[in-house]
Amino acid sequence: MSTVTETHDRTGGPHTAAKAPGNAARLLRWWPAAVLLVLFVAPYSTLSLPGLLDGPLGSAGSLQLLATCLLFGALATGYDLLLGRTGLLSFGHALYFAVGSYATNMFLLEAGLPFAVSALLGLCSGILLALALGSVSLRVTGIGFSMVTLAFAQAGSILVSRNPGGVTGGEEGRAAPADLLPSAFVGIENTANLYWLALAYLILTLAVVHWAVRSPTGRVWEGIKENERRVEVLGLKPYGFKLTAFVLAGALAALGGLVHLLLTGGSTPQTTTSDFTLSLLVMVVLGGSGTRWGPMAGGILYTWADHRLGDLAGSGAVADLPAVLRVPLSQPLFLLGVLFVAVVHLLPGGLARLPSRLAAARRRPAADTLPAAKARKENARP
User: How far apart are CA 301 and CA 358, in angstroms?
Assistant: First the structure.
């Protein structure tokens, strides 16, 4: 009886243990849906998160910050189509984001078109500009490509600041009158709608990027990133595939510009600068370039830190510190830089690599104890 029980335990135990990880893995596949559900119902929540948000989760100020975080999480995900998926380091991605906002605004104010038509024309303007500039920029590779995109971005930023014909508003930007925007997205009472709009943009961007990466074209992008010459040897022309990635990323950025226009109620010249693209680069590296969720996480964390660390830098707690500490800590960019350096140094590969590193750290002690246990067993033998 004891032998049968022991045999049953030996065979049944591992079988049960083998099923548990499988069930856990199946459950873990549903975590994006769970996170999406939590994000969707956030406007209905009165939960307070001290230190993370100034007010309850469903308050207008908190939803505005969360909407901005989701917007830039999506924007970083789209930018990673170039950097992480195709290996293209562009310094001009902000230009297409700005065109989506400014062009829509100009069609509203100058042409007097309805918002839906203006938004469609603004999106098409961003796509056409990405097609035109990408066709030129991709004629060169490596650092040359980066410099050409930077030159285009600088030209666009100068054009906006010069305010030709009074259509851009110069350094002040240009606000869109509330009566020209959809009433569902105007006013503090409609902040939840803006939040859901930003969430929808994030979901759309994630879906498009996931579909594109898993498509045959996405596999060619991966090959171009690893070895472009090998792709040419296989009989494929990398130029067309890179241009496809460039235009798709530009289209997603232009769509983000439309969402930003509704979130802020206008177009701002800060979105045209190369510093804006550098921020996107930091978001992608912070989260993990070339990963599915990393750029989104990096964009959300960077945007939240940019807002919250600014409040910390101007707080009374920092003002009461000695000058040697007060001066650097009163600069939000200094705090962001320290955060970025710490993450890059402590988490190579970005935040997306954190789960695998934690799992490896949990497995390491068990692996280290196996040789020691085997040695004790050998020594215990007569």
Answer: 20
For residue 25, the model assigns a pLDDT of 60
**Cα→Cα distances 316→51, 170, 313, 326, Å:** 15, 35, 9, 10
Q: Is 48 helix (H, G, I), strand (E, B) or coil?
A: strand
Predicted confidence band of residue 18 (pLDDT cuts 50, 70, 90): very low
pTM of the model: 0.84
Question: How do residues 110-129 score in pLDDT, each as one tens digit?
Answer: 888 999 999 999 999 999 99
Contact between residue 101 and residue 122 where contact means Cβ atoms under 8 Å apart: yes
Cβ atoms of 157 and 173 within 8 Å: the answer is no
* Spatial contact of 66 and 195, defined as CB atoms under 8 Å apart: yes
Q: What are the pLDDT digits (tens) for 222-259?
A: 999 998 999 998 889 999 999 999 999 999 999 999 99
Torsion-angle region of residue 243: left (phi > 0), alpha (psi -120 to 50) or beta?
alpha
CA atoms within 13 A on the CB side of 104: 34
Gap between the Cα atoms of 292 and 297, Å rounded = 10
Asked if residues 170 and 269 have their Cβ atoms less than 8 Å apart, the reply is yes
Separation in Å, CA 117 to CA 127, 213, 254: 15, 30, 15
Residue 199's identity, in one-letter code, is L
Tell me the C-alpha distance between 127 and 255, whole Å: 10
